[in-house]
Structures are given as structure tokens and as C-alpha cells.
Amino acid sequence: MTMPPVVDAAWLAEHVGDEDVLVADIRGPNAHARGHIPGSIPMMIGTPGQFASPELRQDFAAEAALRLRRHGVTGEERLVLYDGGDLTNAAAALQVAELGGHTKVSVLAGGLAGWTGEVASGVVELEKTRSELTPNPEAVVALWELPRDDPGTVVLDVRRDDEYTGKGGYPCDPRQGHIPGARNVEVSTLFAAPGLPKPAGEVQTLVGVEPDGKRLITYCHSGSRSGLAVVALRAAGYDARNYFGSWHEYSRHDELPVER
After folding, report:
1. What value does the mean pLDDT take over residues 128-137?
2. Inter-axis angle of helices 224-235 and 200-207, to 10 degrees?
3. How confident is the model at residue 9 (pLDDT cuts 50, 70, 90)?
4. Which of 21-25, 131-135, 140-144 shows the lowest mean pLDDT across its residues?
5. Do 145 and 109 touch, CB atoms closer than 8 A?
6. How many CA atoms lie within 13 A of 106 on its CB side?
7. pLDDT value at position 117?
8. 227, 199 contact by CB (below 8 A)
9. How far does CA 217 lie from the centroid of its chain?
10. CATH for 143-250, options being 3.40.190.10, 3.40.50.720, 3.40.250.10, 1.10.530.10
11. pLDDT per residue over 43-100, tens digit each?
């Protein structure tokens, strides 16, 4: 059974007891012990980063698969991830899980703050598994995969307008501006409230293209906001992946063009 990219508290309350549903709290074991959704496990699997070569990305994907296995994840279950509420950390964990080869991953809209059921406390012991997941390095986009004149791919810059135009930005970046041809849709406009994506129609209007047949690549400054945008875009029906290196990496390559 496939999974929607985002589930709400009502869906989870109905399915949390299903044998094939595993709920994971990615806030860390201490936060989980203080209060968590009943039946969930604590999960710490890290976050993606910049990958300077295909080999480094492959190595990270293999490590992600191992981290999942250490948490008792087999890849056969439906995996639901949640954080405190704004989905930023859950979105990053989703990408790590996909790099590790999991194909049925969702995030909980509104995170723990949006959960309306009972909250449990106490330490939950993990059960390791010997299941082998097949890593999927292409779950996130790397610098060498950014499209050049590909009509089937839309690059989406989800930073603020001043970052996009080059009038603002971070002083650590040697150049300011945006990837040529990228559209600018600031990430907060994709959400009705923290952790709650807008309805699909509203998101599609903001993006300006229909989901059918289009691939979206998101980026921001360092991959966090663009990972969050992936959640809202997938919930709206898009095939979306994150360029995690984002502007922090791109701006350092003088051979690559920049628009302002």
C-alpha cells in the first residue's frame, strides 16, 4: 500500500494500531521519553548534506539504510514521521529515509502539536532488524543533476524575494542571486500554518504549473526550507525532490551561471 506524503491526526488516530504502520518521533529520545504519540518509537537518522560526488552520496544512502535498520525499520511498513510541529525536521528525516531506500514514508501534519489524542511517556526500546533496504541515492538532487533547458523540470527557489533577486542573502555566500530559470515561491506561502500545507489547488496556483508530467526541484540556502517545501509540493500532487546543497553550494562554483 502506498502512502500519502502528508497524513493528519485523524488518519493517524485511525491507523496507529495497524500492524504495518510504524510511527517515528524524530525529536530525539529525551523528548520522546517526556511525551510521545502512543506506539511511536524515537528515531535519530540525521539529515542530508552537500554531496561533492556520486560516491559520497551513495555512501550516505548506504549509511541511511543502516540507520533505519538500527531502528527496527524494514522498509515493508508504512512509516510516519513527526516532529514538534513545523515539519522542518520531519521533512529532513523523510529525505534520509528515502535515501536509505524506504518507499512508503509520510509526515504528520502539525507534528506532535497537531496530535489530538492521548500522549504517552517513558522510554521505548528499539528492536534492530536484519532486513536489507536498497539505498536510493537519487532520492535527493545533487549539483551535477541540476537540469539545463529541460522542459519537463521546474526549478523552484523557495527563499525570500531579496535572496532570490540578490539584493539580500547570507554573507557566507560568495555570490548572490538565483539559478537561471528558477521560479521564486517563498516556502511560507505554501503553508496555511506551521506544518500545515495549503490545499493542493492553492499550492498549484502559486507554483504556476500543473503537476502532471512536471518534475520539481527545490532549493533554498542550505536545504532546510527547500526540504520543507517538498512536503507541501508532494501533498499538492507534484513529483518534487530537494537539491540539498542549495545556494550555499551552488554559489561557490564560479563556472555556474547566476541570475539576479
Report:
1. 86
2. 120
3. very high
4. 131-135
5. no
6. 24
7. 93
8. no
9. 12
10. 3.40.250.10
11. 999 999 889 999 999 999 999 999 999 999 999 999 999 999 999 999 999 999 999 9
Strands 196-197 and 191-193: antiparallel
* Separation of alpha carbons 210 and 213, rounded Å: 8
Residue type, 159: R
Contact assessment for residue 234 and residue 215, using Cβ atoms and an 8 Å cutoff: no
End-to-end CA distance of the chain, in Å?
A: 45
Residue boundaries of the structural domains of the chain: 6-136, 143-250
Q: How far apart (Å, rounded) are the C-alpha atoms in residues 140 and 151? A: 20
Whether residue 126 has pLDDT greater than 70:
yes
Q: How many CB atoms sit inside 10 A of residue 36's CB?
A: 24
Query: Same CATH fold, 143-250 and 6-136?
Result: yes
| CA–CA gap between residue 179 and residue 146 (Å, rounded) | 10
Torsional sign, CA 201, 212, 222, 134: positive
Query: How far apart, in whole angstroms, are the C-alpha atoms of residue 131 and residue 74?
Result: 5
Fold of 6-136: Oxidized Rhodanese; domain 1 (3.40.250)
Looking at residue 153, its amino acid is T
pLDDT above 80 (res 2): no
Q: Sign of the C-alpha dihedral, residues 242, 246, 249, 254?
A: positive
Q: Residue 253 in contact with residue 247, Cβ under 8 Å?
A: no
What is the tens place of the pLDDT at every residue in 153-179? Answer: 999 999 999 999 999 999 999 999 999
